[in-house]
Amino acid sequence: MFRKIILLTALFTFLPAYSFEIHHESIRALYERINPAIVSVDTQLNDGVSCGTGCIIDNNGTILTSAHIIEDGKDIIVTMSNGEDYKANILKKFDKNKDIVLLKISVPYPLKTVKLGDSSKIKVGDSVLAIGNPFGFNGTLTKGIISRIDYFKNRIQTDAAINPGSSGGPLLNTHGEIIGINQAIYNPDNNISNIGIGFATPVNLIKEYMAEENE
Questions:
Q1: 123 plus 195 within the same structural domain
Q2: Sorting pLDDT into bands at 50, 70 and 90, what band is 45?
Q3: How many domains is the chain partitioned into structurally?
Q4: Do 123 and 173 reside in the same domain of the chain?
Q5: Can you tell me the distance from the alpha carbon of 34 to that of 56, in angstroms, rounded to the nearest whole number?
Q6: Distance of alpha carbon 42 from its chain centroid, rounded?
Q7: What amino acid positions are annotated as catalytic residues?
Q8: What is the pTM of this model?
Q9: Do 85 and 178 belong to one domain?
Q10: For the chain, counts of helices (H) and of strands (E)
Q11: Same domain? 105 vs 121
């Protein structure tokens, strides 16, 4: 499942603009608002369990996540932030190379959601947050910046800590909007832990996939 790229001062008068972005909403308040819309996604494989993260994007139970989490799996189980478990069905699976899937769970009450943002507005140096389930540690929050934007390969590079189990989770701007779906980490030495180079699929690309499928 995991390969080389794994499928998670001196004082100045003027400081960089992104230093102030995080104060739009405190990190704690943002986490408390968004985390109820973040779930863990587990599926049974022939040789074990594949674990990842998902984002609830509408209150009737539609979940956006990475397709490689559930590939060749069965009995997809979604665990909410409150510990409730639900069996999920595949609502829409996109082209294999897109690594995006929509799941659906049936819950007898409206769910908290996380908003899809606009990845066309991001810049290198912007502050970002990631919420996921690395190594099964559910609801883990990490902070970093956008380190690079690869327009050719359509991916966002970040130093926010992403590890196995973070796949499918959100890369968030400081307004709490999804600007990318965390997908992989760079792994040059076959060590599956984070070394500060992670990648996310830009959310605008995902919105394009979803719009194409609905045409």
A1: yes
A2: confident
A3: 2
A4: yes
A5: 10
A6: 15
A7: 68, 99, 167
A8: 0.85
A9: no
A10: 2, 14
A11: no
